[in-house]
# Entry
Amino acid sequence: QQNAIVIGAGVAGMACAIRLAVAGYAVTVFEKNAAPGGKLSQLQLGNYSFDTGPSLFTEPGNIAALFALAGEPMQDYFSYEPLAIACRYFYEDGTVLDGFTNAQLLAEEIAQKTGEPATAVTQYLHTAAGLYNSTGKIFLQHSLHSRKTWLHAPIREALRHARPAYLLKSLHRLNSQCFNDARVVQLFNRFATYNGSNPYKAPAMLRMIPHLEHNEGVFYPKGGMISIANALYRLACVKGVVFHFNTPVQHILQQQNRVQGVTAGNRHYYAPVVISNIDAYFTYKYLLGNEVAAQRLLKQERSSSALIFYWGIGKSFPALQLHNIFFSNSYREEFEAIFKHRQLHSDPTVYVNITAKCEPGLHAPAGKENWFVMVNAPAGDYAGHEQVKQQCRANVIQKLNRLLQTDIEPLIEEEQVMDPTGIEAQTASYMGSLYGTSSNSPMAAFLRHPNFSRSIKGLYFAGGSVHPGGGIPLCLRSAAIVAGKILDT
Ligand code: FAD
# Structure
């Protein structure tokens, strides 16, 4: 039996472990934290519980595929329900718009609230579906760095569909050409933030993202997002994967450009296959001691990070959904602040996630709500920036007070704040970026780190900082690409 080592028990690390264990490998996972999940983690504050990181769940098929591969009944581990409304949008002019997951309902809602013709929306989503199915799927399911991929017939087909304009024009520019109403443009611009990018810079190729939400659907995993991590962990254990928690890997061992294993807890563990599920930058800098390669990675812009307020709110708000967005009134300036001036914006777009809406009484006491409140923030070092964070908190509260016509502050019963420095400390994501590198340039997809090392045989990379990118669905796809590559060699 061949050995394989996985560094990090994030979703991609666990998915790699499951795939290799099913194929007959003896897999060992080393995780520096006390529990699996990485960015998918949980926080308890008094009687309130919170998912600490990701909250939007799309493409559940990626998880079902793992259970099918493992021959285990998913319903024994994990279940989820479809949502009718992906997100409720609040604008400063008083418009409140429901982002239905059904394309026709969304188009009618947008037409009714903004006057934008419904056909403009249905046509946009129809084109998004075509682009995703012809081009997106292919690029997200294969390594962009293998010769085999480029010889693969569907890739050539995908390239034929990918119009150059989708790479050369920004998402905002395309959306401004598709819609007349600024609120609708803003709504579809927002999808650039799904991989931590700036819609005024990121290529129009990202227009395929809303297809996932408004054609394929948004889901709520029962028990919250943490249940995804727990389900993968249980499945990995059933398949014989061995986990070492509280055990950071210190080095990747190599000899004559061939990986030998890792050092963890001052012991050597040997394996001909090592998969790094941690930020590629940290892999080079600390585990390989290759400062030159690490610096090369920094040439690519990091995705945005976040400032998060976990609030136990002593009241229930019927006006809110599971996912809510309170849009900035100066969206372009918000992205300039984040990516150009590397500052928090004074009128930030505020995201509020409340899992108590789906499971009342489970994540918050009856009649109360667990608010995960997040604003986009530049990735960076926030140590000692207390005043900046306090100012942001005041801006967020003012905005929510204004748009919900209430006074939030006295309702906050529990509070914890997480900044990009905290995200880096907990999940070893450099500068706290949520999605690795940004997609703010037409070439970003091609510049993202490959799923394998070109110079060290047997070393592979899976997770949010490498191809195809951040977010749970893409991380799970990176695991499929890595496993495919290992099992192919
Ligand atoms: P990670 O989660 O990055 O885990 C890596 C693991 O490696 C960690 O457990 C870490 O402790 C461990 N590790 C690090 N160094 C070492 C070492 N030396 N030795 C051993 N272990 C080590 N995605 C979505 O799909 N939807 C969302 O709504 C969404 N929102 C987000 C909101 C926030 C606030 C954040 C932070 C992320 C969000 N994301 C979202 C992104 C998503 O969470 C990530 O892309 C994904 O979870 C990353 O998974 P990963 O496999 O790359 O591993």
